[in-house]
Amino acid sequence: MTFDAVRPVPEVFYYRDLFVWLPDVMFSTTTMTRTVLTCPSCSSTCDNKVHGYLKARRVFSFPEDYFVMARRHMCKACYAARLLERAEILREHVQKLKKNK
């Protein structure tokens, strides 16, 4: 009896699921536009520019763990940098989804 049949393949352990959280793209109404976000600091609705990406964070889940990435945006009016995963941003998108239904 050989143990080759039960030996795990190392490549399987290198691949993980990755979720990229981009609500301005995910909740847009058309494929060519992005959802305009409201700045929580100055309440302007100007277009925000991308201000970098965060490192992927591990989410412990069953049956497998996965990683989540998000990007930072900077308001062009007040130059406040923010994450799109904060609670007020998520609430804003949930309200927009409810209005569109």
UniProtKB/TrEMBL annotation:
Domain of life according to the entry: Eukaryota
What range(s) does the DUF6729 domain occupy?
Answer: 7-84
The record, for Pfam families, names: DUF6729
InterPro entries, alphabetized: DUF6729 (IPR046616)
Protein name per the record: DUF6729 domain-containing protein
Please give the organism. Answer: Prymnesium parvum (Toxic golden alga)
